[in-house]
């Protein structure tokens, strides 16, 4: 009986995959854009694809959304449970795409843009009007609905763009740099919209130039560089791939500070602030080791803070050289 109880939760932990791709390739003439990348995106999550300009992020989105064909030699690609090679039409019925450039028609009103999308999805007239009205309200566009879209701000156009994408109730949405050019307030509004979509069970495949955006939103992040995935993992896992992390101990008692500095090898002292910086990757194991050491030495620190590299550091390291490990899932050994 105990075996049966243990096996059920394990099975439940295996999340269905919204997107999978193996050996994805694409070239334009002699230019290799994608050199056999693998992707796996669980349902109901945000997956962020980062990379420098020209790395191939938009090419990945176009392939997965059936806008262009993968290159020869690509492996199996499945989106929404459908095989891209044999059932592209079913994929199109499952997804929504918001590209880098707005699809909004500025010559007609926001409401007319919504109704046009409803017609393209072959919704009955009454149903189309209902869906359009609900989405305009959801995206706070009711007051502007009767105005030409050309009069909208950048943030309003982006909200309308995503609202139009949702007319067909897609379960997977591709957002290709959706906040480029938006002011900070509009960007944060967009983040709230994306979080709301995921809360409703929608899968979001996001490309972005804003590393803070990936840090805030993504369940997993992949960094694309030179046609390959340079690293993939959670934001915290990726941050631990690059050096520079440290634990800072601050003391108010000078005696405690001097005692710690005299015996803790490798720590960088700061006499002015009575603090010590200890190289660390910030893992639970290392923090426990530091706390155990303080207890055994009878030294009490007044403050302990963990400082880890941010995604900017990770991005620069991964896209500047190939010296950083490609997998972030495995914990690093304690090297102190």
SSE string? HEEEHEEHEHHHEHEHEEHEHEEHEH
Shape: elongated
Average predicted local confidence, pLDDT: 86
Please tell me how large the radius of gyration is: 25 Å
The largest sheet is: 6 strands, mixed
How many domains make up the coordinates? Answer: 2
Oligomer: single chain
Which CATH architecture of the largest domain would you pick? 3-Layer(aba) Sandwich
CATH homologous superfamily of the largest domain - what is it?
P-loop containing nucleotide triphosphate hydrolases
Task: Kindly identify the CATH topology of the largest domain.
Answer: Rossmann fold
Measured between the Cα atoms of the first and last residue, the distance is 44 Å
The secondary-structure class comes to alpha/beta
Helix content: 25-40%
Query: Uncertain segments of ≥5 residues (pLDDT<50)?
Result: 1-12, 322-327, 329-336
Number of helices: 12
Q: How would you write the strand order of the largest sheet?
A: 6-7-8-3-9-10
Percentage of residues in DSSP E strands: 15-25%
- CATH class of the largest domain equals Alpha Beta
3D structure, described in words:
The structure is a single chain. With 336 residues, this protein is an alpha/beta fold. It folds into two domains: 16-104 and 152-239, P-loop containing nucleotide triphosphate hydrolases (Rossmann fold, 3-Layer(aba) Sandwich), CATH 3.40.50; 246-308, Alpha-Beta Plaits. The protein is 37% helix and 23% strand. The protein is built from twelve helices and 14 strands. It has helices at residues 2-12, 57-64, 88-92, 110-120, 125-138, 154-165, 184-199, 211-217, 235-239, 254-263, 284-297, 311-320; strands at residues 17-28, 31-42, 46-50, 77-79, 82-83, 95-98, 172-176, 203-207, 220-225, 228-233, 246-250, 268-270, 275-279, 303-307. The strands form three sheets. The chain has a six-stranded mixed beta sheet, with helices on both faces. A four-stranded antiparallel beta sheet has the order 2-1-4-5. Strands 12-13-11-14 form a four-stranded antiparallel beta sheet, with helices on one face. The relative contact order is 0.12. Mean pLDDT is 86; it is low at 1-12, 322-327 and 329-336.
């Amino acid at each position: 009986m105990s075996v049966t109880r243990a096996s059920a939760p394990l099975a439940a932990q295996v999340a269905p995959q919204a997107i999978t791709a193996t050996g994805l390739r694409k070239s334009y003439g002699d230019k290799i854009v994608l050199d056999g990348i693998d992707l796996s995106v669980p349902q109901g999550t945000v997956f962020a694809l980062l990379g420098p300009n020209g790395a191939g992020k938009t090419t990945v989105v176009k392939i997965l959304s059936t806008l262009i064909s993968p290159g020869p030699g690509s492996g199996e690609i499945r989106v929404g449970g459908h095989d891209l090679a044999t059932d592209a039409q079913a994929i199109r019925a499952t997804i929504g795409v918001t590209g880098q450039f707005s699809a909004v028609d500025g010559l007609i009103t926001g409401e007319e843009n919504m109704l046009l999308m409803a017609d393209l999805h072959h919704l009955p007239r009454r149903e189309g009007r209902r869906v359009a009205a609900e989405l305009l309200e959801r995206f706070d566009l009711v007051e502007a609905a009767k105005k030409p879209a050309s009069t909208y701000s950048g943030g309003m156009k982006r909200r309308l763009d995503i609202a139009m994408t949702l007319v067909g109730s897609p379960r997977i949405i591709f957002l290709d740099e959706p906040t480029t050019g938006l002011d900070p307030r509009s960007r944060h509004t967009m983040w709230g919209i994306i979080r709301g979509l995921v809360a409703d069970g929608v899968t979001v495949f996001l490309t972005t130039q804003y590393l803070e955006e990936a840090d805030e939103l993504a369940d997993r992040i992949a960094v694309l560089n030179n046609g390959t995935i340079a690293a993939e993992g959670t934001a915290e896992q990726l941050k631990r791939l690059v050096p520079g992390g440290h634990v800072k101990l601050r003391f108010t008692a000078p005696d405690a500070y001097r005692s710690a500095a005299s015996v803790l090898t490798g720590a960088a002292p700061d006499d002015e602030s009575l603090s010590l910086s200890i190289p660390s990757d910030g893992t639970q194991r290392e923090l426990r080791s530091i706390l155990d050491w303080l207890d055994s030495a009878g030294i009490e620190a007044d403050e302990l803070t963990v400082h880890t590299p941010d995604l900017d550091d990770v991005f620069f390291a991964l896209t500047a050289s190939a010296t950083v490990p490609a997998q972030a899932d495995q914990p690093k050994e304690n090297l102190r």
